Amino acid sequence: MTALLDISHVSKSFQMGGILSRRRVDAVQDVSFTLEVGKPEIFTIIGESGSGKTTLARMILGLERPSAGEIRFRGEPVTHANRAERLKFMANVQPVFQNPFEAFNPLKRVDRYLESTARRFLKARSSAEVGAAMDGALQKVGLSLAEVRGRFAHELSGGQLQRVAIARALIPNPPLLIADEPVSMVDASLRMSIVNLLRKLRDDLGVSVIYITHDLATAYYISDRIVIMQKGKVVEMGPARAILDRPEHPYSQLLKASVLSADDAGAGKLGAAADLMALSDSLLSAPRSSLAERPDGRLVRVYAAA
Q1: How far apart are CA 128 and CA 30, in angstroms?
Q2: Structure pTM?
Q3: Beta strand 23-35 with 5-16: parallel, antiparallel or unpaired?
Q4: 5-304 architecture in CATH?
Q5: E strand or H helix at 6, and its extent?
Q6: Where does residue 73 rank: exposed (0-12), middle (13-18), buried (19+ CB within 10 A)?
Q7: What letter would DSSP give residue 154?
Q8: Is the pLDDT of residue 84 over 60?
Q9: Per-residue pLDDT tens over the stretch 163-186
Q10: Sign of the alpha-carbon torsion through 135, 137, 139, 145
Q11: Helical H runs in 145-296?
């Protein structure tokens, strides 16, 4: 069966600096994974800033071309020779970005975004068809067209606006959403509403979600599988609970050890995290490494002696 999304040995390098100080930055290095058709899941990519997770998302969306490897959606390469191919792909793979206040022009009413999406992807022409598509998508995220019609972005809360962004992405009925840090700019009290919405999309609508985050708490709560990335490399990948309960790679252990706990308030217990940071950083310079499979289904990066 053809995979929904197939990432095969994908790498991305950038040239940085000027003529005399040019250097290559390997943002993503040899990443591979597959999402299956008919098996909706929340597949989470975790890592700190600079880990390569957003660059990987941009390549999946076709906004960056891989330097090596291949990305296929339903068996077709994610390279678009013309506008028609691009629109067909966009109808099936929709993004939800980090900051909803940057995703919407403050001088444009938010329902206009919903209207243009319905007209572009659903070919809706009459006002009744457009309105039904807009309201149907908003109902899926707990809103209605009456609540947002005629309103500007600043007239909605961050949580409401992020749900509008998700509703806009749902209008073409895509099988895959790419959600890049969708709760990081939302108040803590509203994060769970967005996270629960992503679970609902998976369970009720059969939408697969690539969820990109540095937040282990929400990743533990909603993920089916996870990938942990460090400096462009996958260090651990597999079933979410297995990895987050018992992380094996030092960097995975570091991420878990760095999660703040109310039990440690005021104690300042940084020793273990500092040791793990030093160990994980030292492994980055290892000359050879590979992903090894474990009995619980995870893949862990192991390092060969020099």
Answers
A1: 48
A2: 0.89
A3: antiparallel
A4: 3-Layer(aba) Sandwich (3.40)
A5: strand 5-16
A6: buried
A7: G
A8: yes
A9: 999 999 999 999 999 999 888 777
A10: negative
A11: 145-148, 158-170, 188-205, 216-222, 240-245, 250-257, 271-283
